[in-house]
Amino acid sequence: MDGEKAAKIVYILSGRFSDEPALKFSTPYELLVAVILSAQCTDERVNKVTRRLFAAANTPGQMLKLSEAELEKYIFSCGLYKTKAKHILEASADIINRFNGEVPQKKEQLITLAGVGRKTANVVYSVAFKGNAIAVDTHVFRVANRTGLAVGKTPLAVENGLMNILDESDWSRSHHYLIYLGRSYCKAKSPDCENCPIKDFCEKNL
What we know:
Elements: H1 3-14, H2 28-37, H3 43-56, H4 60-64, H5 68-75, H6 81-99, H7 107-110, H8 118-128, H9 138-147, H10 155-165, H11 171-184
Helix pairs in contact: 2-3, 2-8, 5-6, 9-10, 9-11
């Protein structure tokens, strides 16, 4: 796919979908915790969990006052709760001990936090700090490959492909567009190709 066609896809999707995340948050730290919880979990479920969790603890210091067992009870319904609780507490300690209690604003620093991989770092960097980045989750990976926007066998390959074909100013918002497209039309099973808004540009790599 060429850059002109990719730009048309972004333009069409901008008229259909929001460029804001579905996760609810009010601070960079809340977003970081929400993204950690979102692994293999729906945003709707995460928002329900964080509504209760953040009422009890929404700063690194407050979070560390919870025991691992107490945190697990709050986040149990998100799945993988033991691993997620450990990562949240370790990341919170990192933020306090290494970054003076503030979530670091550089992607290279974010990725050093416990439980924070490249996708999570890109989300926090682009959404909380308005940096240009493309986070590749399962939806973005699937949609990019199917449409031909960026074909790759790994999330990093797809991320690099998207960065190469899209204008840098479109990176962050395109991440959200592709997620919403994947949830509403380009689903993992039974994609609704007939009604897809970009069907005329899609390479349909099903």
